[in-house]
C-alpha cells in the first residue's frame, strides 16, 4: 500500500483536504493528514479512512508579524512530527498545501529518504499579502514572497495549481517548468453540489446570495452599498450573506447605517452541507471581490447549482470566464453592480442563459474531472 501525508495549516475538516484525502483513500492509498487542533479535539483519530494528526496549535488573524510567528510555529512542530512519522512509515509522497509556500521545506528530511514532494498552491501568496496589508507589488514583503514562491515551486517534484491557467502562466514566467505544473481547479465536491434543477424560490422574494469567509477584500460591502439603489426597483429584494469572518461587524453596521438591514440576512457560520440549500433558494449569486487574489470557489458553487452570477471584472476572472458564463461589473462600484443586478432582474431569459452556460462550463471541470487530474499527478510520480 502506498503511503501519503498531506500537510495543511487549517483545521479539520477543511473541504479541500477532505475531498483530496478521501479521493486518495478510495484509490487504496494510506493517508495521514497533519493539521491544526481546536480545543477539545483529539490529537489523533481516524475519520472515514483518513488518519488525522492534529498539532497543538490554533489559528487567528492578526498583523503580519503574528502571521509569521504562526507560520514558524507550525513549520517547526510539523517538521518534527513529519520526521518522526517518516521514519515510522516511509511515505511515498508528501503533499504540502499552501499557505504559506515555504512550508514545503518541512519535507527536507523525508525527501532525502526518497519521498516525492507535491506542492499544492491554493493561494497566490504575493497577491494575498498585498491585498491584506494594502501594499504595492514592489513592497519588500511582496518581493520576498515572490522569491519564496519560485524557490518553493522549484524544490517540489510536482506543483498543483488551484487558481487556473492565469496563475500557471505566472509560475511559468517565474521559471517553473511547465511539465511540473498541473491545474486542478478548486471546485466543490460532487456529493454536495450535484448538477440538478435548483429549487424554485417560493416566498415571493427576489434573492441574492454571497457566501464564504467574510473579509474586506471579498467586497460584500459593495453589495450592501448597492442595496438602496436596488430597493427602489426591487422592493421584494433579500440578500443572504452566508458565512462568518472578521469583517462581519463592519458590514452589519453599514447595513444599519444605510437602513437596509431588514433586507439582509447574515447567517453566521453554517455547515458545508447547508451551503447548497442557501444557494438553491437564490435567484442570483454575487461574487463581489475587490482584489484579484485568484479564482473564487463560490463561483463554481453557483455554476454547479445553476445560478446566474454577477462578478467583479478582475483580470484573473476575465481571463478564465467569458461573457457567456457571468455578467461582469466594475470592482468596488456599487452603481455598476446595481445596474447589472437590475439587468438580470428584468431579463429572466438572460438569467437562464447565464445559468445554462455556467453549468456547461462546470461540467467540463467538475470534481470527477479534476479528481482524475489530481490522482494522475500521484500516479505519474509513483510510476
The portion of residues assigned to helices is 40-55%
Strand order of the largest sheet: 3-4-2-1-5-6-7-8
Radius of gyration: 21 Å
What average pLDDT do the residues reach?
Answer: 92
CATH homologous superfamily descriptor of the largest domain: Glycogen Phosphorylase B
Order of helices and strands: EHEEEHEHEHHEHEEHEHEHEHEHEHHH
> Given the helix and strand composition, which structural class is it?
alpha/beta
* Total count of domains: 2
Largest sheet: 8 strands, mixed
Tell how many strands the DSSP assignment holds.
14
From the 3D structure, determine the CATH topology of the largest domain. Answer: Rossmann fold
- N-end to C-end Cα span: 14 Å
The appropriate CATH architecture of the largest domain is 3-Layer(aba) Sandwich
CATH class of the largest domain: Alpha Beta
Q: Note the beta-strand portion.
A: 15-25%
Q: Tally the helices: what do you get?
A: 14
Amino acid at each position: 500500500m502506498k503511503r501519503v501525508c498531506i500537510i495543511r495549516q487549517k483545521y479539520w475538516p477543511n473541504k479541500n483536504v477532505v475531498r483530496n484525502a478521501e479521493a486518495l483513500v478510495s484509490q487504496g492509498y494510506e493517508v495521514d493528514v497533519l493539521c491544526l487542533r481546536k480545543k477539545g479535539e483529539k490529537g489523533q483519530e481516524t475519520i472515514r479512512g483518513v488518519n488525522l494528526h492534529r498539532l497543538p496549535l490554533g489559528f487567528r488573524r492578526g498583523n503580519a508579524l503574528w502571521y509569521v510567528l504562526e507560520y514558524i510555529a507550525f513549520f517547526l512542530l510539523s517538521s518534527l512530527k513529519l520526521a518522526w512519522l517518516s521514519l515510522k512509515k516511509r511515505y511515498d509522497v508528501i503533499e504540502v498545501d499552501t499557505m504559506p509556500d515555504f512550508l514545503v521545506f518541512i519535507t527536507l528530511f523525508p525527501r532525502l529518504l526518497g519521498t516525492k514532494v507535491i506542492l499544492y498552491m491554493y493561494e497566490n501568496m504575493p497577491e494575498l499579502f498585498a491585498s491584506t496589508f494594502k501594499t504595492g507589488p514592489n513592497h519588500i514583503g511582496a518581493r520576498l514572497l515572490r522569491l519564496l514562491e519560485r524557490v518553493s515551486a522549484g524544490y517540489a517534484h510536482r506543483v498543483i495549481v488551484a487558481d487556473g491557467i492565469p496563475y500557471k502562466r505566472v509560475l511559468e514566467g517565474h521559471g517553473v517548468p511547465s511539465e511540473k505544473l498541473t491545474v486542478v481547479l478548486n471546485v466543490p465536491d460532487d456529493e454536495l453540489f450535484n448538477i440538478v434543477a435548483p429549487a424554485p424560490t417560493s416566498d415571493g422574494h427576489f434573492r441574492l446570495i454571497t457566501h464564504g469567509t467574510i473579509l474586506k477584500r471579498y467586497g460584500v460591502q459593495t453589495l450592501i452599498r448597492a442595496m438602496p439603489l436596488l430597493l427602489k426597483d426591487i422592493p421584494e429584494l433579500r440578500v443572504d450573506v452566508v458565512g462568518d469572518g472578521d469583517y462581519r461587524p463592519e458590514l452589519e453596521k453599514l447595513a444599519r447605517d444605510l437602513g437596509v438591514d431588514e433586507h439582509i440576512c447574515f447567517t453566521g457560520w453554517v455547515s458545508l452541507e447547508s451551503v447548497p440549500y442557501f444557494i438553491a433558494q437564490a435567484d442570483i449569486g454575487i461574487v463581489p471581490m475587490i482584489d484579484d487574489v485568484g479564482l473564487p470557489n463560490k463561483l463554481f458553487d453557483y455554476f454547479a447549482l445553476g445560478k446566474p452570477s454577477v462578478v467583479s471584472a478582475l483580470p484573473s476572472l476575465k481571463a478564465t470566464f467569458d461573457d457567456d458564463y457571468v455578467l461582469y461589473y466594475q470592482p468596488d462600484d456599487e452603481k455598476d453592480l446595481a445596474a447589472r443586478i437590475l439587468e438580470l432582474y428584468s431579463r429572466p431569459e438572460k438569467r437562464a442563459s447565464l445559468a445554462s452556460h455556467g453549468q456547461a462550463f462546470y461540467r467540463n471541470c467538475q470534481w470527477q474531472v479534476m479528481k482524475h487530474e489530481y490522482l494522475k499527478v500521484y500516479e505519474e510520480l509513483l510510476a
